[in-house]
Write a structure and sequence with these properties.
six-stranded mixed β-sheet, alpha/beta, DNA-binding, homodimer
Chain lengths: 337, 337
DNA sequence: AACGTTACTGGAAACGTTTCCAGTAATTCT
DNA sequence: AGAATTACTGGAAACGTTTCCAGTAACGTT
């Protein structure tokens, strides 16, 4: 079933059918109705490949995400999709796995799907100029900042929270209450990641409170899943019985950590406070509820798309936007005994 | 940058470049290397649209999922993607929202992307023969059974747990321990859904235990999110102070329910037991851990793809597979006081 | 030496659209 | 009435691939 069949069936030319399908003005009402009718009853859907092939540019926006399963990403992806659709574009979603390079995946996707722009979600940000050059469409990084200075900042956009600063704020919630033996639970799925930035914030907060950095209190899990976080927290609990608080760099890790605290016979928050950054839905339904800095997920996704489309449609150049978290005062933080 | 440029740059014809790119045998080693080299350094990626357009059939398998955010789907999607990729196909993921008809979305996707087969995840299963006919490629439904008899069973495949039976098993865990005032927490995002099947299992278990069905103990939430489940559980708790157990039809709802129980001043499981079906990762990190029937998510996804590819490649016809859950004995179930 | 194979390569058609250009009929203007 | 405009329609090229077919050169065989 092609456009030619439709043309034949409705007794008009191929061009006319095309015009009807694309809402071009120059077609009579009678013909338009007739064609639409035929289209309807023959279940015809235009072949997207042919369409994309001939159009000078597609309406495709790519989203490359590392780990769709990450619960924090759910609302972000949702917001991105909504914004993209609302603007009349189509979202092409591509997941990448631990080994892959998201930049390469993005470049490949961009060429093969003729993308207008690209959103990168949850990647490692160790891009170099050559890599960026390989990708010659506008792109925006979501959920991490470039604070390492190795990137060509003016070649792309970003929108994220200030990971280092927010981590600093989180840890200050603890130091302000008098905690001094504060552990940090990191993940290390990639080198220059969010994890490192948040770790820096942790260090700064300690330093400012005059607390020396104690390597025993730093725990880095190899993979990003709950069992790894749980085991990490267990090691911390075994190693440091003077620890009074844990800063986890993600809500999901914090949930695992709270469980580990509980299983060790201690209580959250009386014996050990837990704080995190993210604000996923489920963390306000745990017992106790998690105290965390909520990332504005909707805004993150929405803003990312807005910035990207500004670039795509030539309204504005690239820019870097920082959003702020809001503290949710749950039940998992307390002054130390 | 097209295949013609590559041909020019490497001094061979377009056909030859194509052959190199598609690993056809009839090309000399020297030429192959030369072409590959040029491809490499010019970052050339074939245009997928053109490719799909000309090939008699694509390598695309579609996945239409209702609510990517559902945590239970994460491992299923992961398994599906892995299996599809492993078989040399490409997964095209499409999310649909509450209002949309997944069958129509699937049909549209199928035509426009030239899909070889389709996986439907988490939809409502109110298909009629006409609708199925509109989609003329093999498809497999994942995560729900057809127990309503309204479907043309031999027109498609399915793989899922026996929702009614497993719900029955879950509730029997409660009746066997002596519970008699057992509530059920349903969602109602679509009419003929998993929810209804699990509800039937609940009814059967009660009947078998000689417990009359009490409508006060049936709570149906409008939407599928944690806050709705939480509110539903709260209503139950307010309404029935003789209730000693809750059967939630999904882990995530159960987590919200446990929170509601806790917030009402009662304890899980001493005052109120909670059991569910799903087995998402996080539900074994709650306090207390959730007792639930674990669905074999990996197997579900893997089997779905296997069945689908059997149909696509003509190795076998359609079939309906039922998988079994395994009980995870958590801490959320106890005998009533 | 002529021939059939084999190994490789190039030309060209085809896939299903969109869009530019040209053409026709109807309508309005002078 | 004729010219100019308008409203609509059809033809054909183009998009970037793959693949069929034909062609050439080198090689072994009789």
């Amino acid at each position: 079933m092609t456009i030619r069949d439709i043309a034949q069936l409705s007794g008009v030319s191929v061009s006319t059918v095309s015009r009807v399908l694309n809402n071009h003005p120059d077609v009579s009402e009678a013909v338009r109705r007739r064609v639409l009718e035929v289209v309807q009853e023959s279940h015809y859907v235009p072949n997207n490949s042919a369409r994309d092939l001939v159009r000078p540019q597609s309406d495709n926006i790519g989203l490359v995400v590392r780990g769709i399963g990450n619960p924090f990403f759910s609302p972000v992806i949702h917001a991105i999709e909504a914004a993209v659709e609302q603007a009349g574009y189509t979202l092409v979603l591509h997941q990448i796995h631990s080994g892959e390079d998201e930049m390469m995946a993005g470049a490949s996707l961009a060429r093969s799907k003729k993308l207008r722009g690209l959103v990168l979600l949850g990647g490692c940000c160790d891009y170099r100029s050559e890599t960026i050059a390989a990708l010659d469409i506008p792109f925006v990084c979501c959920t991490y900042t470039n604070s390492f200075g190795t990137l060509a900042q003016d070649a792309y956009s970003s929108v994220s929270i200030d990971d280092q600063m927010e981590a600093y704020r989180a840890v200050r919630e603890l130091t302000a209450r008098g905690h001094r033996n504060i552990a940090v639970l990191l993940d290390s799925t990639c080198d220059h990641s969010i994890s490192q930035l948040r770790y820096k914030g942790y260090c700064r907060a300690l330093e400012e409170a005059g607390i020396p950095l104690d390597p025993r209190l730093v725990e880095e899990t190899g993979t990003f899943d709950l069992s790894a976080a749980y085991e990490g927290a267990r090691r911390l609990l075994n190693r440091c019985d003077d620890m009074t608080a844990i800063f986890a760099i993600a809500d999901s890790m914090a949930i695992a950590a709270m469980k580990a605290v509980h299983d060790s016979g201690r209580r959250v928050p009386e014996d050990c406070s837990v704080i995190a950054i993210d604000g996923i839905e489920i963390s306000s339904y745990t017992v106790p509820t998690l105290t965390t800095l909520i990332q504005p997920a909707d805004q993150l996704g929405g803003e990312a798309v807005r910035i990207l489309l500004d670039m795509v449609e030539g309204r504005a150049g690239n820019r870097h936007v920082l959003l702020h978290t809001t503290l949710r005062n749950g039940e998992s933080v307390h002054a130390p005994k």
